[in-house]
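agent> fetching stored inputs for the calcium ion docking request
agent> found them:
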Amino acid sequence: MRKSWWKESVVYQIYPRSFKDSNGDGVGDLRGIIQKLDYLKELGIDVVWLCPVYKSPNDDNGYDISDYRDIMDEFGTLVDWQELLDGMHQRGIKLIMDLVVNHSSDEHPWFVEARKSKDNPYRDYYIWHPGKNGQEPNNWASAFSGSAWQYDETTGEYYMHIFTKKQPDLNWENPKLRAEVYDLMKYWLDKGVDGFRMDVINMISKVPGFPDVPARNTDRFQSDFRYTMNGPHLLEFFEEMKREVLSNYDILTVGETPAVTPKHAIDFTNEETGALSMVFQFQHMDIDADLSTGTSRSTIKPWSLLELKQITTRWQKEMENKGWNSIYLMNHDQPRSVSRFGNDKEYRNESAKMLATFTLMLQGTPYIYQGEEIGMTNVVFETINDYRDVETLNLYRELVEEKGVDAQALLKVLNAKSRDNARTPLQWDDSENAGFTSGTPWIKVNPNYKSINVQNALADPNSIFYYYKKLIQLRKQNPVAVYGSYDLLLGNDEKVYAFTRTFENDRLLVLLNFTGDHAAFELPETTSFSSAELLIGNYDTASAENIRTLTLRPYEALVYRLH
Ligand code: ISL
Ligand code: CA
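agent> prediction call returned; pasting tokens
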């Protein structure tokens, strides 16, 4: 396996709208991030992934871009952006930008032109289709409710939008459009950015003919993305992008790729034949959803550790030596990891550290989402009016207002699943609005900021923050934590997740109790070692000496070096 800086890096994700507001308008901005660069340096991360900061009408908080080469007014200017990049580079931190090119904003000049007439030179930058019997061309649902097609009066045709109707899909079949995308990528790379996170990049090739998806129920529009992802030209587009752009730079590229198998991921990330460094897969993001009755976001069910083990092990083993994983438990689209996979009440501290150990000790590049390093939790909004996310608001309208689903029942699901859980402001201190803004925040602050905040974390040597810091250093000092192969132990244990990492003559043993109970276990005879040295643990006092038969305390995490 080739060594590379992006395999050894730890990435920190910033959602700029909610990170830090520098001018009191209630919206986080670039100068706010500049103020906090030393905080990121202290944590020890290597790379920042910055969610979109380009000009945008903000129908989907920056994922609807109207100018790919300039900065959103609310966030600042290109001059601020340059200062941010320089400030990062001075501190040895790299910057990857979000590349959102499956779709643009409907206010992008390309779309403004495209919708003018059928023979406009920009018409083919987007995907147009006549209606079928006076209705939408097919039964595809948008990921954000309703049809994936919008009728456009001027020319009497529909355009495709997998996300909101203000996010028309770009037509990658058009070589002119592809050349434009490569150009804008070079524009940012030549300014010195260190890579891209590529939004839903496996959606750029759709299955031709746009056939109806099989109906699972009587709904007019079906949430089934089989024909909008991993289409027949995807690998060609990747190859071309690699040839035209990526291969000329030493960068980190991570594709956001829902609904991929390890086979796809290997095609995309293989060192010789793939185009990308790594991808985000989503299998583990569905373990608490009931996909037979709805989507990941509209349903909730208890998840099982056995399933998490099975999914994680599948990705760890199948990608080994063939591709490269990225490891994450949350991002700006997902609930808070400690609330979802740990216990955000009596064991918040222990379980957040246990989950950190899990994330940092797997094979792959780990991603930490802002606030995760201090154990921020889901927020409980009691009314739909507190939510801001377009996906959440559309879902509420569709289910409650159109289909008559019980509002309280849906609010319960949203409390657990809404993307806004990740988007409440970062809690800096215990002053008003958590020190995020001196004005009125664009979305409510989680009321637990009085105790859960950065200031408290920095003042407490036992905080989740310092535990992350230690784990990050551990990963840097031990190549086995980066490159070591993964092997699962105790595959049937419903409480304890145990695995080893092996690289050359070095071996680590990782023991994680995923429950609030005491969990006893016995390592299999085949795990041979004569002594074990504790590298890190999330309880103050050490465990028993004999680690072969151990009882882990609630959410206990231990990492040993085996000799
Ligand atoms: O479509 C999905 C599953 O089939 C979604 O889970 C999808 O993966 C996800 O919504 C894509 O997210 C990304 O693109 C969106 C944007 O709203 C998100 O914030 C972004 O991360 C549209 O750009
Ligand atoms: Ca601001």
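agent> quick read of the result: The mean pLDDT is 97.
agent> awaiting further instructions
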